[in-house]
Design goal:
The complex is a heterodimer of chains A (about 250) and B (about 425). Chain A is α/β, with parallel strands linked by helices and about 250 residues long. Chain A is built from seven helices and eleven strands. Chain A has one domain: Rossmann fold (3-Layer(aba) Sandwich). Chain A has a nine-stranded mixed sheet with strand order 9-8-7-10-6-1-4-5-11, sandwiched between helices. A two-stranded antiparallel sheet of chain A has the order 2-3. In chain A, helix 2 crosses helix 6 and helix 4 crosses helix 5. In chain B, a hairpin with a 2-residue loop joins strand 9 and strand 10. Chain B contains 14 helices and ten strands. By secondary structure, chain B is of the alpha+beta class. Classes of the chains: A alpha/beta (about 250), B alpha+beta (about 425). At the A-B interface, helix 2 and helix 6 of A face helix 4 of B.
Amino acid sequence: MSARVLVGVKRVIDYAVKIRVKPDHTGVVTDGVKHSMNPFCEIAVEEAVKLKEKKLVKEVVAVSCGPQQVQETIRTALAMGADRGIHVEVSGKDYETLGPLQVSKILAALAKKEQADLIILGKQAIDDDCNQTGQMTAALLDWPQGTFASEVNIEADKLKVVREVDGGLETIKIKLPAVVTADLRLNTPRYATLPNIMKAKKKKIANVKPADLGVDVSSRLEVLKVDEPPQRQGGVKVETVNDLVRKLKEAGRI
Amino acid sequence: MSDVCGSLSRSRAAVRRLCSRAAAEAHHDVIRPAFPPLQSFSEEESMMRDAVKKFAQERIAPFVSKMDEDSVMDADVISALFEQGLMGIEIGAEYGGTGSSFFSSILVIEELAKVDPSVSVLCDIQNTLINTLLMNLGTEEQKQLYLPRLASDTVGSFCLSESESGSDAFSLKTKAEKHKDYYSINGSKMWISNAEHAGVFLVMANAEPAAGYRGITCFIVDRDTDGLHIGRKENKLGLRASSTCPLTFDSMKVHEKNILGKVGHGYKYAIGMLNGGRIGIAAQMLGLAQGCFDHTVPYTRQRMQFGKRIFDFQGMQHQIAHVATQLEAARLLTYNAARLKEAGRSFIKEACMAKYFSAEVAALTASKCIEWMGGVGFTKDYPIEKYYRDCKIGTIYEGTTNIQLSTMAKMIDQEYDG
């Protein structure tokens, strides 16, 4: 197969870090905080590399949008087996307000430019939990989508996707080109072995600007305030059911 | 981030040029220090360290306790080390290795030691002793034969010490008698690490006893060689998962093409390689201390007594800060020794200092951590007591603390010769 896969990888605050809200409540503290590849994006990269190893796709291209630092994230994807990377340069205020709509416009434009046959993304990012980029990208391209994938198989020119849904598992067959978003159980991402990290140094990362792709990254959303979740208050013990009902009424809960 | 190794070896003239006013004006818009801090890493080094950190946490940590209890290194852990490319870090890609640098090895050894110092020493011996000797001294034929194996599936052991020669290494008694095109080796070795799993042994034997230490020769011996007997492993206080065995050579026949380097030059090779190996052990002790510390501080921040965290007591804070300082100093000594070696500059004294100091810091840290953890620090349910048992070997192997100090003193003496 001569298929080319585009994989989106997002640089997010590492899952193990304790998040702190900035004193001015405009966002969370990111300076000096450990960042890594979004865990669902790792799963997406792993799936793409596995497809290449099975010789079902020919080339895996890793894409990330952001400032200089996202190159580390792209390099990690290269070390996992992606063939080349594309760094879409977005920085400063534009980066702070970058969201799923702009990213999906960028991915759609890149998919056309790179003539991709398949886009694999993580189902959501662990910083904003949007769960929108995959779906929006498919809509912009008018491609079918297989979201929350726990299994992906290529059969001729179609994709069989097993999706994790509320009721259980749903199996769908969609035509290529398509967008797939990776859920937790799709695979277990490999470690970047040391020899592969060395090989990744030689792989190319191209730089491109959103404007070059004809994408306007200005946001339609304005974040007004960011707060920590309210501190959990202590509870109250009551002796009788009547007391309970009275207290709930007093608190306006019933 | 640009490669920082080059900046450490800049000549004095270059420094003067850099510091000149003209240079300053030209660079006014880019504030880059002429000499970056010691804890600066290339992108490749950072990626390696992060990869090993994750790998160690997920693939090694779950086995540590059992390996220590049973005194056995898990075979899956060893193969995982090979799979990740951790056993051939400096071996070139043309031999199937990782093709990276000495400093990367140091970072890997440190990260592994944070999780299990036994696994770390296996990796350290392979990279800093076995691979280094083969790469520096091997003929092309020997390199083609052994380097790919060492990088992919074969553990190596270095055999120098004997029951009657530890610090006095060169008084070793194992003899190699020449017959036509082979040598017959008789003798025994003690305290040989990795022996249980090793597929290849670098054996130091004396081919010309009349010449004293100038007869010591290094032989490459495959495990299945006739006459090689691997004894029962020692039941040790610490580093229990790392096998430590006596070896006996019973008229063991080794072909002369298995000599590494030149006959009678073995003592030189041993000294040269142990200088670098010293930095590896420093990294291991450093990782041990840091790993122990990282397990303990969170506990002190959680544990409440007298209405506050035990971390909040000034006595505790002062002790913790003191240990943290020692750790930082050990780290800088180790990293600097490694960078000096990579830069091709003299590093022997600094390597001794790093090994000596890191081993002492590891002992201090482990001891203090048990105290800070209180009763639970004394139980096997928590990982702290293992670090305490593991650290003791640091002041003993690969050159005892006393040997390090004597070596340093000798060099200091020479420095003032004028």
